[in-house]
Design a protein that fits this description.
Mean pLDDT: 82
Strand order of the largest sheet: 9-12-10-11-13
Number of helices: 10
Order of helices and strands: EEEEHEEHHEEHEEEHEHHHHHE
Strand content: 15-25%
Shape: elongated
Helix content: 40-55%
Structural class: alpha+beta
Distance between the termini: 68 Å
Number of strands: 13
Length: 391
């Protein structure tokens, strides 16, 4: 690293000057379309950091964090150069459309409208508007907790990216008609419209979504299971059962669902899940799906941040697994196709600006314990949330 690549100070709007060069031995500045990134080697006398440096950093108009490297403590400073004007109308329209489709799905789950012909609600078969209000109210019981989980998942990514001064879009929700999807959505996503500075940023942005979504899905699932009904004499079908238009779908169990089911209903062999419980179950499914270490999924971000050289090989193995699972449940192929579209067909992970900057040890440990632990808690062996219709 050479000195005097760029001056390291920023003139604030109040007219004060923050001059950080007195605390640094060397620095380099990288200008990206959306932000300026300064990688600075801090003088050992201020690497504590010193009170004077701490005071100066409080006035820095951007983000900052520390990195321990072989040549000393580095300070990574970022400030945004431009702010893109968001198309909030598109985001609001997609959210409202997803609210409608998931509410229709909830009305089907509640038995308020028929799955095979939901438009009967508007053709005079039902007494409008009273039945429309009933169907909408029944559907919100499912759609609101589901959208709360998806929103918190994406906001975890969004707020963490904004904390690092990254150019990131608000969440895009994906509405889907009841046919072919009986849940009304394929989830949501955000767009990172810039190159990330290092693997630390990639790790933090990637892991924030699953953590936030899981913390909301867990109480939703717990409340939903309390509202669910045991079916001790249901016959050969056991576990979590979802009633759908006269048929029953068997949902895969996970360690979380087994523990919650046992704590709420004891040893009841079968449980007819409430729509709220199904929303929580879907939240667990989304968490598990996103932790798969492929492409642009959260697990792919986390894996590349921790093991950049192994990411593509492991991803190819999981793509093979998804194709195999697609023979047993076509939904895996739909999810895989969506991931390919969002990642623009790339199997490998896009690079970061400085891949050589080491990932902090605490995050390396979290990669091994947190991701593996969350995946084992949310996935269901051996079916991996494979749903099969039972008469």
């Amino acid at each position: 690293m050479r000195e005097n690549y760029s001056r390291v100070y920023e003139t604030l709007r109040q007219g004060h000057t923050v001059n950080l060069s007195a605390f640094l031995l060397a620095w380099r500045t990288t200008s990206l379309p959306d932000r300026e990134v300064i990688d600075a080697l801090v003088h050992p006398a201020h690497a504590g950091p010193s009170p004077a440096l701490q005071a100066a950093l409080t006035q820095w108009p951007g983000s900052s964090y520390w990195s321990d490297e072989p040549d000393g403590r580095h300070l990574v400073l970022t400030r945004a150069l431009t702010r893109r004007k968001e198309r909030w109308g598109v985001h609001v329209a997609l959210f409202l459309a997803t609210l409608v489709t998931t509410t229709f799905a909830g009305a089907v789950l509640a038995g308020a409208i028929a799955y095979d012909n939901p438009l009967d609600l508007f053709t005079g078969t039902y007494p409008l508007p009273r039945h429309l209000v009933h169907a909408w109210t029944a559907g919100l019981v499912f759609s609101l907790p589901l959208l709360a989980i998806l929103s918190c998942h994406e906001l975890g990514h969004y707020l963490t990216a904004r904390r690092y001064s990254l150019d990131v879009s608000p969440p895009y929700f994906i509405p889907v008609p009841l046919v072919p999807s009986f849940i009304g959505t394929m989830g949501a996503f955000i767009r990172l419209r810039t190159m990330l500075s290092d693997r630390r940023q990639l790790f933090d942005v990637g892991v924030a979504g699953p953590i936030a979504g899981f913390l909301v899905a867990l109480p939703v699932l717990a409340v939903g299971l309390v509202l669910s009904h045991p079916l001790p004499g249901h016959g050969p079908s056991t576990g979590l059962l979802l009633g759908l238009d006269g048929e029953t779908a068997v949902l895969g169990d996970s360690l979380v669902t087994l523990l919650l089911r046992w704590s709420t209903h004891g040893t009841a062999p079968a449980l007819l899940v409430h729509p709220v419980a199904f929303a929580g179950w879907l939240g667990m499914f989304v968490t598990m799906l996103n932790l798969l270490p492929i492409s642009q999924l959260d697990g792919g971000h986390i894996l590349y941040a921790a093991l950049p050289r192994w990411q593509q090989r492991i991803a190819l193995g999981f793509w093979t697994l998804i194709i195999i699972l697609g023979w047993y449940w076509r939904g895996w192929l739909y999810w895989g196709l969506l991931v390919l579209v969002l990642s623009r067909g790339r199997l490998g992970h896009p690079p970061v600006l400085d891949a050589q900057r080491p990932l902090p040890r605490c995050r390396t440990r979290r990669t091994r314990s947190g991701s593996c632990g969350t995946t084992s808690l949310t996935r269901s062996p051996p079916s991996l949330y494979l749903c099969t219709n039972q008469p």
